[in-house]
Specification:
This protein is an alpha+beta fold and about 290 residues long. The chain contains seven helices and eleven strands.
Length: about 290
């Protein structure tokens, strides 16, 4: 009996010291509470990652994590390859499901107003919305969680639409979301905690964009003044002040600071250039899209 007891006790000690599984057996996105060690979770997957507090983004090998300013001047994070640009986001949601369905309806209306050819597809997590415009395809993949809703927006060119969708799903299923306990209006984007080095890079990008726009506005003023002095010149009509130019530059410039954003050992890949005014940017739209 004594020997048996010792054996059982030893088994219990061994079981207690075995490491817990770091990768859930089901696909995510996962609530942060079910993954006690995010670093071990992504290390086991062979991913890099960036912890933004309310959202942890995994970066598969061969991809790059960039940060840019959205049209409202707020930072957004892009997982990028030569094929796709994947933008994860997370929102507060009510206890009852259904917010993602409402978001799809709203997005469809806005995209159709922009002239996109919009369709709804049945994906692994349910509804995916796909919008096509000349030269660009937008796909949104989302799901409702525990008082949160998360999505990824996938930008691609038509010839890469299928591979881009798979890249978007790969990022999506390994997102970790931390809703927090505080009250938040349903549909409000969860606030991100930006690491200091990225925050500094963003501030530098905003300042550079503002200075560049101010310089361009000044040159336009000088050119308009010269035209006003010439016979038949248009005077000062349509002039833009340097302050106005700087403000517009800070808001509309896609300030790319992704080369300095840490991807935690994720191998980099070439970043498709952002083309202001292109169909891709029109699909990207406002923060409400």
């Amino acid at each position: 009996m004594f020997g048996r007891k010792k054996s059982v006790t030893g088994d219990r000690v061994a079981a207690a010291t075995e490491p817990e599984a770091t990768v859930p057996t089901t696909d995510g996105p996962h609530d942060r509470s079910v993954v006690p060690d995010a670093a071990a979770y992504y290390a086991e997957l062979g991913y890099g990652h960036l912890d933004l507090g309310a959202m942890v983004i995994g970066v598969p090998k061969g991809r790059e994590l960039n940060v840019a300013l959205d049209p409202n001047g707020q930072p957004e994070f892009h997982v990028v390859t030569s094929v796709s640009r994947v933008i994860p986001r997370a929102f507060a949601a009510p206890k009852s499901p259904g917010q993602w369905r409402n978001m799809v309806t709203s997005m469809r209306e806005q995209l159709e107003q922009q002239g996109a050819d919009v369709s709804i597809h049945d994906g692994p997590w349910g509804r995916e919305i796909v919008a096509e415009m000349p030269g660009a395809v937008f796909r949104a993949i989302g799901v409702d969680g525990d008082r949160w809703t998360t999505e990824v927006r996938v930008m691609a060119t038509p010839e890469n639409v299928d591979s881009a969708a798979e890249e978007g799903r790969e990022v999506f299923k390994h997102l970790l979301i931390r809703r927090g306990d505080g009250p938040m209006p349903a549909g409000e984007q969860l606030p991100l905690t930006i690491p200091d080095e990225i925050q500094q890079a963003l501030e530098k990008a905003r300042a550079q964009a503002a200075a560049q726009q101010q310089s361009q506005a000044y040159q336009q003023q000088m050119a308009a003044g010269a035209q006003g002095k010439a016979p038949g010149g248009g005077g000062a009509a349509g002039r833009q002040s340097p302050q106005q130019g700087a403000q517009q530059g800070a808001q509309s410039s896609a300030a790319q600071v992704g080369d300095t954003a840490p991807a935690n050992d994720a191998d980099g890949a070439g970043t498709p250039p952002r083309r202001d005014g292109s169909a891709m940017d029109r699909l990207r739209g406002s923060d409400d899209l």
